[in-house]
Write a structure and sequence with these properties.
Rossmann fold, 14 strands, about 50% helix
Length: about 575
C-alpha cells in the first residue's frame, strides 16, 4: 500500500469520517474504492441487499475523473465472486430520464457521479432518492476543493439534504482550502484529518504545497507575448515524440490556438496528433480523452477540466501557456506528469515579465522551479505566425470571430478570476497580448479602463478596420435573419428608444452629427450625446406636426419627413 492507503483504509473501514490530503499520484482512488467494497461486502453478510439498494456514492468534479473512478470500481466488481455488485456512472450530456430508466431496469449498488447529474436524479426520481435515503452507507467527495471552486457548493448542500444522517462521509484532495473546512463541518461528524507529506523539509512547513518528487518544474520568462507561441512550437519540435498537455485559460483560446498549432506543427509533413478538450465539447470529451490515453505521440490542448485527478500514463511535459488561476491549480496541473510510481515528469510555465511575481509565490510555497536560460527566440517564425493569423482573419470571418473571442475571454478571466488579478491588471500590456492574437482591431472592453497606458503600438491598419466593419455588418445581418418573432417582440419591449444600427437614417442632418461625434465619445458622454440628439429629433417632429395642423405643409411633405 501507498502511505495514503495505509493511513486511510484501516480508519475508513472502522466507521470513521475522513478528510484526506495527499499529493497527486499517491493512490487516493484506491484509498476509498477498497474500503467501500469492504463495507458493502460486510453488509451483504448481515442483510438481504436488492439490486436497487444504493450503498455508496462517489462524487467527482469532472466527467473525465468520474469515468476513471468508475473504471477502477469495475475492475474489482467484475472479478468479485461473492456478490455481483453493480456500479453506475452518472454524468451530464445525456437525458437524465434515460439514466433513471437504466437504474430502474438494471439497478445499482455503487454510484459514481458529477454533482449536477446526481442532484437531477435525486430530485426527479422518487425511487432513486428513497433507496439512497434508506440504504446509503458511504458518501465520498473526490477532489473536494475543486467541487467548491467550480461553484458546486449549493448543489452539494442540496444533495446532503437527501442523504441519511447515519453514513460514513470522506473527502479526498491534493490540496485543502478554507471553503473545504466549511464543508467538513457541514458534512462530516468528528472527522479524522489525514495529511500525507512528501519526504522533504520545505513541504513540512505550514502553508507549503506538495509536488511529486520526480517532477522537474521549469519556467521561461519572455519579453513579449508574441514570443510564447513560436517558442512553444519550436519546443514541441525539438523534444520530439511524446505526450504533451498544454493548459490554456479558456475554451475559446483552445479553439483558436488549436487551428494555429495544427498549421505550423504539421508544416514539415510531421505526423503530429493534435487534440483539444474543454467543457463545451460535452459528449465528445470522453472519446477525445480515450484517444489521448491510447496514442503514444500526442499533443492535447485543454483547459483546467483536465487538471484534477486524471491518470494518463507517461505524460512527458505539462506546458502552462497561461498562468494557472491559483497555486493549487498549478500543483494539480503539474501533477498530470510524473505522478505514477517510479515515473519522472516535467512541467514548463511560460511567463511575461510582469508575471514573475507568480514564480516568487511558487517558491515561497515550497515549489522548486528553475528558469530555462539561453533561449534563442525564432524571429522568423514569430513574424510568419502573426502574418498568417492576420491574413487568415481577413480571409475568413469565422477565424476573425475566433481570434476576438479568444482574446476577450482571456482578458476577462485574467482580470477577474485570477488570484493575482490586482497585480496583473496594473502592469499588463494588453496591446502586446492583442498583437500576439493577430487581432485586426482592438475590441472595446471595460477592463481596459483599469489598465496602464501600453508602450507597445497596436499592429492594425485602416484596411483592417474596414474589414472588421464589413464583418460586423455581415454578422449583424445574419443575426437579424436568424431572430425568431418571439426574440423580436422581447427586444422591442425592452428597448427604450428605437435607434437603428444606422443611427438617424430618416434625418440626414441628425445622421451627419451622429457619425461625426459618436466615434469620438465613450461611456457616459456618448449616452448624453445620444439622448440630446433624440430630444432634438423629437422637437423637430413636433414642429412638423404643428405645421401640418396650421396648413403650412402638405400631407405629402409630412409623409416624406417621417418616411411613410
Amino acid at each position: 500500500m501507498t502511505a495514503v492507503q495505509a493511513a486511510s483504509i484501516p480508519l475508513f473501514i472502522t466507521n470513521k469520517d475522513l478528510a484526506v490530503e495527499a499529493v497527486t499520484g499517491s493512490g487516493k482512488t484506491l484509498a476509498f474504492v477498497v474500503p467501500i467494497l469492504e463495507i458493502l461486502l460486510k453488509k451483504i453478510k448481515n442483510e438481504d441487499v436488492k439490486k436497487h439498494d444504493i450503498g455508496a456514492i462517489v462524487i467527482s468534479p469532472t466527467r473525465e475523473l468520474a469515468f476513471q473512478i468508475h473504471d477502477v470500481f469495475k475492475r474489482f466488481t467484475q472479478t468479485l465472486t461473492t456478490f455481483a455488485f453493480k456500479s453506475m456512472l452518472l454524468i451530464g450530456g445525456s437525458n437524465p430520464y434515460k439514466d433513471i430508466q437504466t437504474y430502474m431496469n438494471t439497478g445499482a449498488h455503487i454510484i459514481v457521479s458529477t454533482p449536477g447529474r446526481l442532484f437531477d436524479l435525486l430530485e426527479k426520481s422518487e425511487n432513486f432518492s428513497e433507496r439512497v435515503r434508506k440504504c446509503l452507507e458511504v458518501f465520498v467527495l473526490d477532489e473536494a476543493d475543486q467541487l467548491l471552486s467550480m461553484g458546486f457548493e449549493k448543489t452539494l448542500n442540496d444533495i446532503l439534504e437527501y442523504l441519511p444522517k447515519l453514513r460514513r462521509t470522506s473527502l479526498f484532495s491534493a490540496t485543502q482550502t478554507k471553503e473545504l473546512d466549511q464543508l467538513i463541518r457541514a458534512g462530516l461528524r468528528n472527522p479524522v484529518k489525514i495529511e500525507i507529506k512528501e519526504k522533504n523539509v520545505r513541504s513540512n512547513k505550514n502553508g507549503q504545497v506538495q509536488m511529486p518528487k520526480r517532477l522537474q518544474n521549469k519556467f521561461l520568462m519572455v519579453q513579449s507575448s508574441e514570443q510564447k507561441l513560436p517558442f512553444m512550437i519550436n519546443f514541441l519540435r525539438e523534444h520530439g515524440k511524446g505526450k504533451y498537455l498544454i493548459f490554456m485559460s479558456t475554451c475559446a483560446q483552445v479553439n483558436y490556438f488549436e487551428k494555429i498549432l495544427s498549421r505550423f506543427l504539421n508544416r514539415n509533413n510531421e505526423n503530429v496528433t493534435l487534440l483539444k478538450l474543454h467543457r463545451k465539447l460535452k459528449n465528445k470529451r470522453q472519446k477525445l480523452f480515450d484517444q489521448f490515453r491510447e496514442i503514444d505521440y500526442c499533443i492535447l490542448l485543454c483547459t483546467d477540466v483536465m487538471s484534477r485527478g486524471i491518470d494518463i500514463p507517461c505524460v512527458d511535459w505539462v506546458i502552462h501557456f497561461d498562468l494557472p488561476m491559483s497555486i493549487e491549480n498549478y500543483v494539480h496541473r503539474c501533477g498530470r506528469s510524473g505522478h505514477q510510481v517510479n515515473q519522472s515528469g516535467n512541467s514548463l510555465l511560460l511567463c511575461l515579465q510582469h508575471e514573475h511575481e507568480f514564480v516568487s509565490i511558487c517558491r515561497n510555497k515550497g515549489v522548486e522551479i528553475e528558469p530555462i536560460e539561453n533561449v534563442n527566440h525564432d524571429e522568423e517564425l514569430r513574424v510568419s505566425i502573426i502574418k498568417w493569423m492576420k491574413s487568415e482573419s481577413r480571409r475568413n470571418i469565422n477565424q476573425y470571430e475566433l481570434s476576438v473571442q479568444a482574446f476577450v475571454s482571456f482578458v476577462r478571466t485574467y482580470c477577474s478570476k485570477h488570484f493575482m488579478a490586482r497585480i496583473l491588471l496594473q502592469d499588463c500590456d494588453v496591446i502586446d497580448i492583442a498583437n500576439s492574437y493577430g487581432l485586426l482591431k482592438l475590441p472595446l472592453m471595460p477592463e481596459f479602463r483599469q489598465m496602464k497606458k501600453c508602450p507597445v503600438k497596436f499592429k492594425g491598419s485602416k484596411e483592417d478596420e474596414k474589414t472588421v466593419k464589413n464583418f460586423k455588418d455581415i454578422l449583424f445581418e445574419k443575426k437579424q435573419k436568424n431572430r425568431t418573432p418571439e426574440e423580436e417582440n422581447e427586444e422591442s419591449g425592452n428597448r427604450k428608444f428605437k435607434v437603428t444600427k444606422f443611427g438617424f437614417k430618416r434625418n440626414p442632418e441628425m445622421q451627419e452629427k451622429y457619425e461625426k461625434q459618436s466615434k469620438r465619445l465613450k461611456g457616459k458622454r456618448k449616452r448624453e450625446f445620444m439622448d440630446n440628439l433624440e430630444l432634438e429629433e423629437l422637437e423637430q417632429d413636433a414642429r412638423i406636426v404643428k405645421k401640418l395642423k396650421k396648413g403650412k405643409i402638405t400631407n405629402k411633405e409630412f409623409e416624406q419627413h417621417f418616411g411613410l
